[in-house]
Structures are given as structure tokens and as C-alpha cells.
Amino acid sequence: MLNIGIIGYGGMGSYHHQQLIKEEDQVSVTGAFDIKVDRLDLARRNGIKTYHSLDELLRDDTIDAVLIATPNDSHKELAIKAMEQGKHVVCEKPAMMSVKELDEVLDVSKETGKTFMVHQNRRWDSDFLMIRDLYNQKQVGDLFQIETRVHGANGIPGDWRHMKVHGGGMLLDWGVHLLDQILFMVNSPIKEVSCDLSYVLGDEVDDGFIAYLTFENGVRALVEVGTTNFIKLPRWYVKGLEGTGVIYDWDLSNKLVKQTGAIDHHNLVPIKAGQGLTKTMAPPSEEAVTELDFPPVAADFPNFYANFYDVVVNHQEPVVKNEEVRRVLALIETLFDEAGQID
């Protein structure tokens, strides 16, 4: 059994305990530390030991590894201290505030021989796995345009996420997830990027962004996060050389249309569009397209904590590799730079 101590028993820390780790037979939670009393009370109600200080948790020899689920600016210090105290580390995303910080942590991981892994949980999302399968299996031909979005209308949560000093803002929040998914799916170097950050709510950090990525293999990706969208656009919209796919929301409602016949460009039937006619935007004939099933897809890689156990105990390859984490952080720094937001 691999015993884990949780540092930060808030929303994500308690979620790891109550949902993710409970699913694994070889991993368990020993206890938790948090600076907030109400969270320690919650941990005790959930049946685990609590610690009066971080040092007390790290001195507990029954703990093999720690989960860091605290604001972003504290990840580096906590990860280094834990590894130097002989603990393996699982860290919530984003791993660090910068590539420089991550490199320092990875140096300590190498020096101590302790595993450092980042929890990129959105690699297991069903909607992403469906699009990844569509990309790999080419059901509608080679995908050449991928649009991935998450939209909400509640603004930035009223906690550390709206504070720059703690690494707040949507590019470092949901942006990490969406960019990780794209880079995990598209196996090609990035050729060109651009980014527009939104500050319409008046916070000191971005309340949303739109990023454009062009890969050397020709794939173009639009990555968007919005917190002022009272009407949402689809979660995914992708175009292939032979069709189009859309996943509308978290409920996996979707549509997948494939071209099955040649389009007779010389005999298109025009339709009335507003105050004019158009052949270009007329729908294809019924004989030219068909609608395909877009079934959910299971991950072809193990669950996170099962993999973490195998990495620590059996020296297996991690699903979330630190070089992949570093690439995402480097891309985020580039996007901030492109948007003119580097200090």
C-alpha cells in the first residue's frame, strides 16, 4: 500500500481523497494538513488523521507520498520540502508558476530520487478521449482544425484564483487543462502561436483568453476559455478532410457528419439566404453525407493513481511525463508573452 498525506484539504484535496484515491486498491490517504480549521474538521469527518503543522505531516514515516493541492504559488516550496523529507510528490496543476520553478523542482527530484508527478486529470475526460480517438482513427479524415472551449458565466471564483500573486487567472487555470489535452493529442512541434487575454471584469488576472496554435503538421487549434458567456459555444468543434464533428457539452451530446459522395460543384442548388441567394452555403445533398455514431471512448492508459503507484513501486513510465508538463508551462509563458503580459 502506498500511503499519501494531503497538503491542502480544500475542494481538490478532498476530491482526491473521496473520489480518485478511493478507486485504487493500492493507494490510501493517511492524513491531511491545512491552514484552515474548517478543512481539518472536514478531513476528520471523512475519517482521516489531521496534523497540526506541515512539518508534523512530513515527519510521519508512515506517509510515502504527498498530494499538493494548494494555491499555485506555494507548489515549488512544498514540493521541494516534501522530497527533501523523503516523500514522493503528486502536485495539482499548474505544476509551478514558471518553467524556471519547475526545473528547480525536477532537479531536486533527480537529486533525491523521489517521484514528482503532476495531476493532469482532464486527460481522462470522456469528451477529450472521443476527440482524441477521432483524431487518431481518422473517421472523418485527417483533422486539420480543432476548436476546444470551456464557457461559463460566473466570472472568476472569489478565492485566490483572482489574485496574480497566487497564480490566478484562466490561462493558468482551465488553460492548463485545454493546452495539455491539445499537446497530448497532436504529436507535432508548434510552428506559430498568438493569444488574446480578456480583462473585461476588471480583475488583475485574465478572466478568459483565446489562443491560436499552428502545428508543423498543418493542424490548427483554437483554444478558448471564457467566464462571461451566458450562451456557450460547443465544447469541441473539429473539421476533417471528410467531415465535421461537434461535442456540445459535458453530457457528451454530439454530432458527427461524414462526406460519403462527391459534391457536384457545377450543379449546386442555390438557397435563399437573407435578401440574397447562395450556392456556397447551401447544404450538401442527402446522398453526399451520412451521420456517424460518436460513441464514448475508454482511455488506453491507466488511471492516474494506479499509474503513480506503478511509477513509484515498479518504476514504470508515467502517463503524465514531466517533459510534457514543462512543454505546457513553456507554451503558457509564450502565450503570456504574445499577449504582452510578461512582467
Could you describe the 3D structure shown?
Helix 4 (75-84) packs parallel to helix 5, helix 5 (99-112) packs antiparallel against helix 9 and helix 7 packs across helix 9 (322-338). The protein is elongated and about 80 Å long. The chain starts with a strand and ends in a 5-residue tail after the last helix. The longest helix is centred in the C-terminal third of the chain and has 17 residues, at 322-338. With 343 residues, the chain is an alpha/beta fold. The chain folds into two domains: 2-119, 3-Layer(aba) Sandwich (Rossmann fold), CATH 3.40.50.720; 123-300, 2-Layer Sandwich (Dihydrodipicolinate Reductase, domain 2). The chain is built from nine helices and 16 strands. Helices cover 29% and strands 25% of the residues.
Q: How many structural domains are formed by the residues?
A: 2
Mean pLDDT: 95
What would you call the shape? elongated
**Beta-strand content estimate:** 25-35%
